[in-house]
Amino acid sequence: MIKCGECGYENMDGLDYCDGCGAKLAAAAGGTAAAPAENKSETTPPEAGADIDAKATPSLAADAPVDGQPTSEVPTGDLKKETPEAPAPSADASGAAAPSGAPATFKAKLSVVRGGRKGQEFPLEDGNNLVGRWDPETGSFPEVDLDADDPEAKISRKHALIRIDGGKITIEDIGSLNGTYVNRQPRLSPGSPAEIKSGDEVIIGKTFLKLVIEPIS
């Protein structure tokens, strides 16, 4: 048997550590009792820089008071970044938003050159101008009424649409029977506007017209 020098517990031979307290055992030579372990109460203090047992020296909380004095709170400040305000939409000197398109600075008209009343003119307005013939069923008149210039009824009642938007003029076939042509080019596809300029020739049915643009003085 090996008697623990720390707690006095008798352990079986061959053990290195006490079953009673866990202290290291010193086996006695020739059956003699183990030498008493050195008294822990007389141990020397740890050398400078050595680790201190965490159980023997409890850690101090970061915000715990020292020597009875309350710790001062560290101001964190407002960590949120200020979000810059979105810029206001641009406006002119009067404060009104800029218009999407400038008004036209010209007057436009169609003049019959062949296949009808030669020299007959049809002023065009800003926006949409319907080209066709008077419809007796609805009583509506298109802006460009070619009823008197189309004795063979080759022009549909709603044949084409001429639109003036700012400085741009376009013509669009709106599903006519005999088609719309510009400068004797291939027939316009319905629903596909084509830009026209001063002097361009427009063929509606068998009526030939010329676009005339005059600047506004």
Q: Could you characterize what this model shows?
A:
The protein is mainly β. It is built from no helices and 12 strands. The chain has strands spanning 2-3, 10-11, 106-114, 121-124, 127-132, 144-145, 158-165, 168-173, 180-182, 194-195, 201-204, 207-215. Strands 4-3-12-11-9 form a 5-stranded antiparallel beta sheet, with no helix packed on it. A hairpin with a 6-residue loop joins strand 3 (106-114) and strand 4 (121-124). The chain is rod-shaped, with a radius of gyration of 53 Å.
- Structure classification: mainly beta
Q: Beta-sheet strand percentage?
A: 25-35%
Query: How many helices?
Result: 0
Overall pLDDT confidence: 74
- Order of strands, widest sheet: 4-3-12-11-9
**Helical amount among residues, as a percent range?**
under 10%
Strand and helix order:
EEEEEEEEEEEE
Q: What's the shape?
A: rod-shaped
Q: Flag low-confidence runs.
A: 28-46, 48-84, 86-100
Query: What is the tally of beta strands?
Result: 12
Major sheet description: 5 strands, antiparallel
Give Rg in angstroms.
Answer: 53 Å
| Amino- and carboxy-terminal Cα gap | 129 Å
Helices, strands, pairings?
Blueprint: E1 2-3, E2 10-11, E3 106-114, E4 121-124, E5 127-132, E6 144-145, E7 158-165, E8 168-173, E9 180-182, E10 194-195, E11 201-204, E12 207-215
Parallel strand pairs: 5-6
Antiparallel strand pairs: 1-2, 3-4, 3-12, 5-7, 7-8, 8-10, 9-11, 11-12
